[in-house]
Amino acid sequence: MQKMTTWRQNLAVLWAGNFMTGMGFSMTMPFLPLFIKTLGDFSKSELTLLSGTAFAITFLVKAIVSPFWGRLADAHGRKIMCLRAALGMTFTITACGMVQGIVSLIILRALQGGFSGYINNANAIVAAAAPREHSGQAMGTLATGNVVGTLLGPLLGGVIAGTFGYRSTFFVTGALMAIVFVATLLLVHEQFTPIAPADLLPTKQIFQRLHYPQLIIGMFITTLIIQAANMSVTPIISLFVGELLHQHGPIAMVSGVIAALPGVVTLISAPSLGALSDRVGPEKVLLVGLLFATLVFIPMSFVQNIWQLGFLRLLVGVSDAALLPAVQTIMTQHVPQSVFGRIFSYNQSFQAIGSVIGPMLGAVISGQFDYRGVFVMTAILLLINLIVIHFASRPLLHPTENEA
Fold first, then answer.
1. Angle at 210 between CA 209 and CA 216, to 5 degrees
2. What would the mean pLDDT of 227-234 be, rounded to a whole number?
3. Which ranges does the record mark as transmembrane (predicted)?
4. I need a surface site. Which of 108, 112, 135, 165 has the fewest CB within 10 A?
5. What is the domain range of residue 99?
6. CB 235 within 8 A of CB 366
7. Exposure pattern of 323-353 as b/e (b: 16+ CB <10 Å)?
8. How far is Cα 33 from Cα 47, in angstroms, rounded to an integer?
9. Torsion of CA 356, 361, 362, 367, to 10 degrees
10. What is the reported pLDDT for 307?
């Protein structure tokens, strides 16, 4: 009974931590170029380059350092890694609100990525503690924290920046991360036996000991593509909304709502779809979710008004609610607990790479074709992902064939 209470308490606290961490990474996105513009006299091309650098460097550094933090998590525990990440982000994000030059901002954005790791270690804590029969529902619920925080962050950040100024958003975000640190310190309980560094398996041996290594690699690829799909519309969403509204009306507000719609639906539907994966298997939910996502993005390229776009963005929230928890649950069920830290950190590295690739592809495709081409590109990526996972999951879906 005590264990059941503990994992549910951990889930609640870490969900809030994931939510605030997701917001911490996304709250400044809507106005980052405008903030950079106040730090110097830059030409249009310089401003574009500096804004792209300041945005991307956080995720690039995160992709590089995540495996290092994952190894430390497997050796010393995942809770201490959550505390390290929350405290580091508290100081780096708050300091961003005090910078007087662009170089300082870029350095601090890089450090913010370097201190990352809260979300993947929160996943590892919940995955290790939740009973297997509830793992899908638990991971489904936890996944909504980061997704909803990331999607709602720009909306909240825009409101704060518009009301109190750009710098205030950094201070608010830093305060939220300080709350995450204190809550994690006092309310999260982890049963962990430290592992001597000499006893940690090398990465190559980890994958050799997995029953389905190709499936876990497929999960990494899926995480990258899901994140790239979600982020691909970031550079063009407000421009596309303006086109649909014929450049009239509250374009900024409508863009924020359109961007946030998937997060609202994901929050509502992810626990139910996670419970479904406990009953029918996360592999089936993942395959159906990828097919559904592909079918949702295709008609986005043909929308004629804002209502059609809004409806399809709602359906994107359903696909996210199916995909992200399924990925986490599959890794939970097919990876030994002793290497959760590293496997989940590798997954975070792929997610960070998706955060960089998605907006870059979106910007390139919209420049070469038009805004509608971004949705076609995203649908193609999801279709390729569906094919990869179909073959990677065959040993689980057809065990008798595998044995034969």
1. 145
2. 80
3. 12-36, 48-69, 81-107, 142-164, 170-189, 249-273, 285-304, 310-331, 343-365, 371-392
4. 165
5. 2-189+200-403
6. yes
7. bbbbbbbbbbbbbeebbbbbbbbbbbbbbbb
8. 7
9. 130
10. 93
Report d(CA 127, CA 136) in Å as an integer.
9
| 337 is a domain residue | yes
| Residue pair 10/126 in contact by the 8 Å Cβ criterion | yes
Structure tokens at 243: 């086109």
For the chain, the domain total comes to 1
**Helix, strand, coil share of the chain (percent; to 5):** 85, 0, 15
- Given a cut of 80, is residue 321 above it in pLDDT? yes
Q: Is residue 230 part of a domain?
A: yes
Residue 206 has pLDDT above 80, yes or no: no
Residue from 55, 18, 62 nearest 152 by CA = 18
Output the CA torsion sign for 20, 25, 31, 32. positive
What tokens appear for 290 in the block? 């990828």
Q: Does 195 fall in a domain? A: no
Please give the mean pLDDT across all residues of the chain. Answer: 82
Percent of residues, the chain, with pLDDT higher than 90: 21
Asked if residue 218 is part of any domain, the answer here is yes
- Tokens (6 digits) for 375: 């949705």
pLDDT at 1 over 50: no
pLDDT of residue 211: 78
The per-residue pLDDT for 107 is 94
Distance CA 114, CA 61 (A): 6
Of the candidates 381, 396, 345, the residue with the CA atom closest to the CA atom of residue 122: 345
CATH number, domain with residue 262: 1.20.1250.20
Where residue 14 falls among pLDDT bands split at 50, 70, 90? very high
Q: How far is CA 379 from CA 163, 229, 260, 293, 361, in A?
A: 37, 8, 20, 8, 13
For residue 150, which of 226, 42, 82 has the smallest C-alpha distance?
226
Per-residue confidence (pLDDT) for residue 2, from 0 to 100: 46
Residue 235 is predicted with a pLDDT of 64
